[in-house]
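HOLO CASE FILE
Compound: cobalamin
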Amino acid sequence: MAHDLKEKLKEALLDLNNDATLDYVQQFLAADEMTAKQAVDSIAEALEIVGRRFQEGDWFLGELVYAGTIAKEAMDVLTPALTADDARANCGTVVVGTIEGDMHDLGKSIFINYARSAGFDVIDLGVDVPAETFLEAVNEHEPLAVGMCCLLTPAAGGVGRVVELITERDLRARTKIIIGGAAMTQAFADEIGADAYAPDAVTGTDIIRGWVG
Amino acid sequence: MSLRIGIEPQSRWLTLAAGESLRDALFRAGIEFPCGGKSLCGGCQVQLLAGEIEPDTAEKEYFSAEDIASGWRLACRLKPQNGMRLRIEQWQHRAAAPILSDTQSIEPGCEETYRIAIDLGTTTVVAQLLNMATGEVLSVVSRLNPQAAYGADLMSRIDYARNDEGFAQLVNTVRDCAGAMISELIHSSGIDSALVDRAILVGNTAMHHLFSGIDVAPLASVPFSTIHGGLRRLESAELGWKGVDELAVWVLPCLGGFVGGDVLAGLLATQLHRERETSLLVDLGTNGEIVLGNRQQLICASTAAGPAFEGGGILMGMQAAAGAIDAVELKDGELCCHVIGQQSARGICGSGLVDAVACGLELGWIDPSGRITREDKRIPLTSDVYLSQQDIRQLQLAKAAIAAGIELLCAQMAVSKEAVINVFLAGAFGNYVDVSSAMRIGLLEFTQHQIKPVGNTALQGARLALGLASDVYDEQLREEAADDTDKVQLPELTAITEKVVHFSLGESQAFQSLFIEKTKFPESSATPEYQPEV
Ligand code: B12
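Model generated. Tokens follow.
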């Protein structure tokens, strides 16, 4: 039964069936022998498959965004039901924004959705975010990671500035830096000394998950 | 130590800086590699006319022994040697073909003068000399925009121009280029340069600014708007142009954001702003520009498609040059590819890409989500050329940006797509792309009878504007301009620029979900309807 429900939830999400997904989530919560944590795990498994399909090109934006939205809805229902232990085990705060000068929103939002579904507490700073605002947020929230999105070539310098600011304040040990978006590359990440570059939202989520611990 | 190499059939010598690659040197001279130049395709074949250079392994593999013996090499493998001479005629580009430089006459005037119309494109610059008395185009020259050496796309150039030195380089490069083209026009037609009294330039907002010597920093970041996009008037002397002392140089004003004077020229050419019924003007390029309107109301936007329409970001993508598949057709369930030049296919350009995807959809090889359904995850076109899954994805992003932009403008003006009488397609890609394929992939969600490819409307409009600025204005404007360069005006143009409203898609809440929706392909050849909530 347990195994069955886990599979069903996974399949519903992979079929992009919103109603069925939420329905199975409710069944999880209603069943005595099941825990919310198990539902979260099966959503995570489904999202991994979504990620693979996206990376391999089988799925595209529509599916990616939709799966992310459904997963987020499911997580909203499940989060209050998680035990304190589960919650602590999963959690970490991530501060995310699109760099100053750039207003591209889509990729960043997708990443946020995936990070939230993976159990991160994401502070969304929005778009056109100045370097100083990133720094303030890092001071305030003491996050596990800062994620920056940049699609515009002329805005790329700002990303480097955030890295500088965080490094200057000696905050790198506590907070790692990940960058993404079409104007970013691994080479650029190396050049400015960011901890990681992610070519897509799913890889990005995997990377920050690796930093929990 | 610098060295010199000769280029045929242009018969010119290039001086290379120490360590400079052949590719960079050619680029400086306005000659672009027809391909990626990474030893992948053999696209950059050249013939050595003078110089002894041993072929390397890649070349030996690519060419027959006879070819090697008669001097054929791959330009991407060649180390420049002093005194070597290359023949590059086979790199014929379609860009210089009729579309960009069409030579329709304008209304004859009574003045015995000669004037020059220039389309300052990001990639290609085209200039024409007109006899104003007869309205005829006397000669045409076109060159690659030499600014490309500082960045292929507009945003990298804007970025490059952010320090003073880079800015000066970009300004001078484009001014020198236009100046040289004007001299060439005058010389080749043998007229007296004193009779040439005016030049009109049109270009996108960045070209407008760089040519006029205005800072492009406002275009580098949010909100991407400039207050200096007005009509500009410069003197040939201040531009450092020699041999044309008395030339008044006008740069047509921009419409807002990235929508520049080239689009304003498009309005002049199509007369969209004078009609009672609503029409649409679309320039399909890396930065797609759209204007919707009629004589009452005009609304414009720029929508960032990315380079897919020019073959950029596509695995086997290339420009529309020799060896590119530029058209694909279905004949009895089989794909038939047309290749530019008498060559075998070695890549695919934008128009071929749109065709190939349209055919793939028809064959069921691609499903409406864009997924390739074939086992091999490829769309095979010829024995050497195929499309990958990521190529389809790139096209989906590009077409979605355009389709979503068009739909939002329609919603903004509360006009249904059926009510638009003309959909004018401007620019090279818009004129080469097969209309039914563009419809099939959902790039243009209109019917065949609405869609009208209208050629290079930027150049047409620049030509028409030659007659607008009369000499009376010239004098008066010169004085006004001396006080405040932002105040130069021409009533005919002001009537448009004051009416047009620039709509910033980036600020639209509705854009994103619409964009995602539009990444899908239509289920079948019929156009699906989707009503956004705005
Ligand atoms: C959609 C789009 C827009 C939309 C933006 C809608 C929005 N609110 O986001 C609109 C039309 C508004 C727009 C505007 C502009 N755009 Co635009 N736009 C695009 C386009 C077509 C797709 C970008 C996109 O959303 N991709 C899909 C998302 C999902 O991909 P992504 O962002 O890369 O994100 C993925 C990963 O990178 C990763 N990721 C992203 N961020 C992060 C962050 C972290 C931390 C991590 C881990 C991962 C991660 O996860 C995502 C999913 O896997 C691209 C061209 C293209 N073909 O790519 C141009 C493009 C990015 N735009 C460009 C430009 C220049 C502009 C403009 C400035 C100028 C113009 N041409 O009009 C304007 C601004 C005008 C204005 N006044 O606002 C250029 C940038 C060129 C450059 N090198 O600088 C591009 C490349 C197009 C081009 N001309 O070549 N644009």
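CASE NOTES: Residues 36-55 of chain A form the longest helix (20 residues). Chain A has a mean pLDDT of 92.
CLOSED: yes
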